Amino acid sequence: MTELNSPELTSHDPSVYHFGSDNYAGAHPEVLDALKRVSGGHVPAYGDDPYTQRLRAWARDTFGQQALIYPVFNGTGANLLSLSSVVPRWGSVIAAPTAHINTDETGAPEITAGLKILPAQTEAGKITPEAVRAAASNRAFIHESQSCAVSVSNSTELGTVYSPEEFQAVAHTAHELDMAVHLDGSRLANAAVSCDAALADMVAGADIVSLGATKNGAMSAEAVLVLQPDRVSGIDYLHKVLLQLSSKARYQSAQLLAMFEGDLWKRNAQHANRQAVRLAQKLSDAGFTVPTQVQANTVIAQIDPEVAQAAHAAGLLFYAWPAVPSGHRFMCAWDTPDHAIDMLVERLAAHRA
After folding, report:
1. For the chain, give me the number of helices (H) and strands (E)?
2. pLDDT (tens digit per residue) in 186-238
3. What is the largest CA-CA distance in the chain?
4. What is the DSSP string of 211-247?
5. Contact by Cβ (8 Å): 276, 332
6. How many CA atoms lie within 13 A of 99 on its CB side?
7. pTM of the model
8. Who has the most CB within 10 Å: 129, 188, 207, 327?
């Protein structure tokens, strides 16, 4: 029998770290330990297991007794389930032009859920209350898609962060205009650490939340967190219809419990955020421009195209970021070490020279 750590089963170099995405990182050992602990024997399927029940209790204890939580497979699924339960088929969703639901989900909200995305103006990647009012549809005009929700990403795709007060101001305006509020929190832990705030404070004002874990050290687990059940419709059925109800839900719930019952979410995000600050400083010291403030675990730097192309050819993985002129995005993860940052900057500087 082949051992799990044998060369036959290892197809990558575990000593190599990349900056293309925090999704590149592996699962945290505490998450893997949790999966081992829950794996023995039989338990009921489809969320009737004791670990999913415990997750539901955690959600109520953390966010209020009205809170509901639904484990899902991935972030796109979390966003689709969230938006589908608060927006009718004739509705549209106001979001930042750079929002993941607008640029990186292959039109899934439109194709799968029939929801139109309405890009709103932003400041440093963030929607303002004024932008929500400007983007809101004319409810008296039957030919216009009706804006029924606002979706806010925290942290944003530019790495900026809404403070609790900023998010609540946007949410208040949306509710005033009779729109639901969705929070895309795929990197909510990083935003919370940046604000030195509790998760409950970061989501206050939202009706429904895509609660991220995979980017912060989980293996394959996200969740939809319902804070205002009166605003959602059919979510129990949509959980199944949108292919996000796992038969072996205990494995998703175990990962989420490992992340959120204790402080693993915070420890992992603190490390990733610290390393992003370190990377930004190193890039600046090497003569590269970092035009956006580093608030979470995202660094956007201006890199000449020929330098980026040479770095890619040499095996360095990071992405062009068109929202910023000559912009390239570098993501730090829960396990990004100092030496990987040093090597990245040294090689970029060498290609520029």
Report:
1. 14, 12
2. 999 999 999 999 999 999 999 999 999 999 999 999 999 999 999 999 999 99
3. 69
4. E--GGGT-SS-EEEEES-GGG--SHHHHHHHTT---T
5. yes
6. 29
7. 0.95
8. 188
H or E, element range at 111: helix 108-113
Structure token pair of residue 295: 């608030």
Q: Are 312 and 15 in contact (CB under 8 A)?
A: no
Return the amino acid letter for 240. K
Strands (DSSP E) found in the chain: 68-72, 91-95, 116-119, 122-123, 126-127, 146-153, 180-185, 208-211, 222-226, 298-302, 319-320, 327-331
In whole angstroms, give the CA distance from residue 169 to residue 183.
13
pLDDT, position 139: 86
Sign, CA dihedral 263-40-47-76, equals positive
Report which residue type is found at 302: Q
pLDDT for 1: 45
CA distance 191 to 269: 8
Sheet holding 146-153, edge to edge: 68-72, 222-226, 208-211, 180-185, 146-153, 91-95, 116-119
